[in-house]
Structure formats: structure tokens, C-alpha cells
TrEMBL record:
Organism: Vibrio gelatinilyticus
GO molecular function list: alpha-amylase activity
Domain Glycosyl hydrolase family 13 catalytic residue range list: 18-423
PANTHER family (UniProt xref): ALPHA-AMYLASE FAMILY MEMBER, OLIGO-1,6-GLUCOSIDASE 1
Designated name of the protein: Alpha-glucosidase
InterPro entries per UniProt: GH, GH13_cat_dom, Glyco_hydro_b, Malt_amylase-like_C, O16G_dom_2
Keywords, sorted A to Z: Glycosidase, Hydrolase
Family listed: Belongs to the glycosyl hydrolase 13 family.
Pfam families: Alpha-amylase (PF00128), Malt_amylase_C (PF16657)
SUPFAM superfamilies named in the record: (Trans)glycosidases, Glycosyl hydrolase domain
GO BP, sorted A to Z: oligosaccharide catabolic process
CDD domains recorded: AmyAc_SI_OligoGlu_DGase
Amino acid sequence: MSTKHLEKRWWHDAVVYQIYPRSFNDSNGDGIGDIPGIIEKLDYIQELGANVIWLSPVYKSPMDDNGYDISDYRSIAPEFGTMTDMEKLLYEADLRGIKIVMDLVVNHTSDQHPWFIESKSSLDNPKRDWYIWKDAKQGGSEPNNWESFFEPKAWTFDEPSNQYYLHIFSHKQPDLNWANPEVREAVYDMMHFWLKKGLGGFRMDVINMIGKPSDFPDATIFDSGVAGWEHWANNLLCHQYLREMHDKVLKHYDVLTVGETPFTNTLDGRFYSHPDRNEISMIFQFEHVSIDREEHNAVKKDFDLVQYKEIMSRWQEDLYQKGWNSVYWSNHDQPRAVSRYGCDSGPNRIISAKMLATVLHMMSGTPYIYQGEELGMTNKHFSHIDEFNDLMAKFHYQKMINKGVSEQTAIDFLNDFSRDHARVPMHWDGSDNGGFTTGKPWLPLNPNYTDINASQALLDHDSVYHYYRQLAELRKGEEYGEIIVYGKHTLLDPQDKDVYAYLRSFGEKTLLIVANFSDQIQKRHYSGQLNYHVLGNLPDKVTDLSRLTLLPYQAFIAEITL
Ligand code: GLC
Ligand code: CA
């Protein structure tokens, strides 16, 4: 049996901070965040304790999906800066011990990418086969019944060449044909181009969708997610391409790779991340963000902590020494964590934001912090569909209206789940536009920036920011680093619907993590002797596990002896 899984890798104890460049910090007053703006804030990220930045796309793009539609993989979007700025960012980050992970968006390109323009230009163009073109079915309909995430159908008809092309996302994001070896070589070349500049790795956008079965069969599953996923998600082709990518590119660099992979279970998690399979370091799974909604569908469900705990602990246990987890509460596609799982008003905002951080950062795996999460930023309130920017919000709205849902109900759904909650600009201080820009922000800010902002948080030792900093310190520290990163995970009281409690153990050491997810006092007891109260989100230290009175949203970490 191999022991390779025990080999330590630098990204095992990493803490990743995600930046959505458009909304992070604007250095030149045009209302759009940019790379020089990021450089200005590197100290802020370093002090937080993050040592990796995942940068959402900064490549040249028509920005139909805010950069996830790339028209040139080797240049920087002018609104974000220049290649020199990007190189300076790498250099300045390196000085602070921070690695930069870029987004790799290669399931699709923009329809403005020269590859697609050529491909579209004629049936016999050498790049015709770089994308997925198909004849209509008898009668002229789409080649199959697959759906798109952003539009009703995954196929768009091209009149001049009399064929359809495939797009799992918008029609401005045509899917690349990974079955063509020239496409794969072009992607690998581009990856070398960036890695040679000293990149710390890649976050791979919807990487589990790159394998398309050559017979393009009809979908049969219409009740969960976007129809077609049964054929294009996590298939053998995808794993084969990833192993080839590893062999031709990744094995030559010591990098972090994280695949964005909806529709995965823990077995898929092991397939992608077991080190002996030579694919990628870890994946983002979606099970836990699909509890209170149908992921990528406009359907709300009730949040159930019992289910949440079952999912998280299953991932912790099933990948233990057989792969690697990534753990996250939010990102640029999700609503704000404190609004979704905690309480986003009054004093409980800060307490519950810290509670959520405690639960996540004491888990095994690599934690990801989404910009503003460390301030406890909240969802913004939208009143009208015109206030949204995101194309998915508009699509979901239309879908709901078409189903006969009222306008208000549709807006209510978006107020819970729109991706724009995470995409409104970052709050730096209490001045106009939160110090994000001196101009007109591309998307209006959440007006609560006057109370919730970075300059306030830095000054206040009890802020969410400083709590995140302490959690990152624990993960990197002598005392608890090993147990937090490599310890075994055991869920306690799985049926408890208000309190999330689990153990971490490594050698002789045991940590108990307890978090009250409710706004009520909860009385609980846990076995074991409390040796040391490591950290908590309330001033009082916990002393006796046999008689605990947990205040609303209280959380703590204790070293115990069982
Ligand atoms: C991923 C990205 C999302 C984007 C989509 C298409 O899900 O995270 O923002 O819209 O892929 O590239
Ligand atoms: Ca700018």
C-alpha cells in the first residue's frame, strides 16, 4: 500500500483568500477594482494570515460573465491593468510570502476569442473542431436536450454554417472541444506560460465538465440541476484529461490546484484528489451549498443543520488520508455566509460570523476566505430586477416569472441567493463608497459600509477580522497546527439540530469544537475533561463540559482529555 498520502505538501496548511478583482479595490477612480489596487492591499491580506490569493479572472474579456469569458488567455484586461502590473503583483506577493493562484477557465472561452471567431468562420476552418459543432436533429431541433446554466438551452444555432454549437454556460461562452488534442496542447502551453511567471497554482473553473461523451446522448434527469450533467460531469474522460494535464504540466511545478466541481460526491472527491492518481490537489464540492436551495436552480429549501453536519463530516472522514478537502462558506457565486447561515443584524452579526469561522477553520483541508467574509459583510437588499448585474440572476428571475411566480417572490429568492451579494464592492472604510473608489462604482455598494468596513475592523481587537487572524495563527502554530491540519475528525451528536460539535484528534491530543447555530440559549454537556480553552467568540471562557450554557451563536475551541 502506498504511503504517499502522508507526504506533506505546502498547501496543506495554507489559508487562501479569494479576490474578485472588479470589486476589491479601485486604484484609479474608474469605478472598477484593479491589480494595482490589489497590490495596495497585500499587507492587509498578509496580516490576516492568508498565504495564498486566488484571483478570479483578470484576463482580457468582454466581461459578459465578468471575466469567466476569456478572449485572450495571455493578456490582462485593460480595466484591471497590464502584464507589468500582474508581474509586480506576483513579485510583491512573494515578498510577503503569498502565492498567487489564478483562475483557469478552460471549459469554455468567450465567443470573442480568436479561436472561436476562426472556428465559426467556416466549416473547413482548421479550428472548426476546437469547439463543439453539431448538425440539427431531424426537423431542425437542437442536437440533444441539454440545458445551460444561464439560458434555457445549451445549444445555439449558427445560421451561416447551419450547425449548432454547445455552451453549458451562456451562448457567449462556447465550450472547447477537449477531445481535440490540439485544444489540450494549447491549454497546456498557456498553463506553462503562467506557471513560468511564478504562479502558485490554478483554481480550475468547472473543470469537471470538460469531458463530453462523443455520442452526445439526451439527458434523462430533469429534477436536479441543469439537464445534461449526468453525461458531462465527472466522467472518465475528464479524469483522463486531468492526468494528461498533470503529466504534461502540473508535475513540473509544486503548485496548488483546486477544481471547481459541482455534482460531486466523496468518491469523486477521492478520484480527483488522491495523490497517487496524479490529478489535482483538491476540489470544491457543492453538497453543502445545495442544502437550502437547488444548486443552480431557482428553488429555495429549508436549511437543515443536521444535514449540513452529515455532509461536512462525510467529506472530512471519507477523504481522510485518501485525498484532500477544501473548505469554504462562500465565494463569488454564493450569497454572504453570515446572512445565509448566521444572523446579519445587531450584535449577533459579529458573534455568528465568528461562529461560522470557528466551525470551518477547525476542519481538516485548505480553508478559503472570500473577500469581505473576514469583516462579516452581509447580503445587500435589492428591490428591483434592474438593480442586479449578474446574468444568472436575470436568467433565474425570468425562469421564475415564466413559471407564474410573482415578481416579489422572484426578487425575494434573489435577495437570498443572488451572486451579486458577493460581488458588490468591498468595504475599506466609512468614507464615500466605502473607500473602494473615488469614482462611480461599477455596482453600487451595500449602504452598511459605514458600520462594516476594514478600517473599523483593524482598529477593533474584537472584530471578525482579528478573529479570523487568530484562527489562521492556530492553523500555522506549533501548538495546534498539526491537529488542525492532519487530525482525525469525529462528529458528535449528529442529530442535534441546533449545535454543531466535533472532535479533532492527533496523537495524544484532542480538540473539541462546539458551535451554537441557533439564536437561543442551548444547554449541553460533552464528555471529557477540559484542559484549556483555546479560543471562543464570547469573552467568557468555558470551564466545565458537563454543564454548558451556550449563548446564541456561541462557539469555542477547547483542548480536552477524553
Ligand atoms: C464557475 C464560476 C462562475 C462562472 C461559471 C462559468 O461556476 O465560478 O462565476 O459564471 O463558472 O465560467
Ligand atoms: Ca480601476
